Amino acid sequence: RAGAPAAPVEPAGTVHRVIRRRRQRAAWLEGWEAVAAERLRQWAWLRDDERTRLGDHVEWMVRTKHWEAARGFALTQDMVITVAAHAGLLLLGLDRHHLREVRAVVIHPRTITRRGVWATSIRGVVTDGPRRVLGHAVGGRGPVVLSWAAVERDRRGDDGQNVVLHELAHKLDAADGLFDGTPQLGGPAERAEWVRVCTAEYRRLRREGPGEGVLRAYAAESPSEFFAVATEVFFERPAALRAGRPALYEVLAGYYGQDLADRDPAR
User: Fold this and answer.
1) Do 106 and 145 contact (CB within 8 A), yes or no?
2) Which residue among 27, 133, 160, 235 is least packed, with the fewest CB closer than 10 Å?
3) Beta strands 118-119; 135-137: pairing state
4) Parallel, antiparallel, or unpaired: how do β-strands 131-133 and 126-127 relate?
């Protein structure tokens, strides 16, 4: 049409790059169930309808998030579906908006070096030295960063640790803008019960230490770490968590909309 503005000219290779990305994402999704069945230990616990919903969440994660490998690492279907399936597990009883701020997932081959200022294990003391971590979640629209070596370690272990669940739980925690150990909850009564139970359990852990309990000592670092560690255990060792800390299990079951303890083969 005369006088219509000219369409913007895309840089050379842009269209082809987008097409390749779409094809790559489609290829990642082919046969995703086999990968999830191998990588997600809870797969065997899920009903057919839950597996279907999980598949919808996996596709949403794969198609809408930015996926990146760091330091020359190459992404594989195994890596992408492993992370997406764990996200889908968390979302089975939640709305997707709880993970809306997960805009990108970055996977490193091994441990990750973080720089910045953070608190030490000594109260009131901070450091700005480099820190080696297995994963971290950046607030706001920042990425979830994971060590693939840690993901593989957790797959072989039975200690209730899961770095993917841990870092995604941090993003759930921060969905309301704060890393404070309290995710977005349904209403004032649910929030009050959450704060009452989690505060009591957190203080108990700091006072008594983990002992023979199911929560590891790292959960006592901060309320945010408490929630992330408790999430790991809720999904990895639900029967043990219900037996050892029943009140904590109940508020987590209420938040996640899942009651997994009776499905746990270890019960």
Assistant:
1) yes
2) 27
3) unpaired
4) unpaired
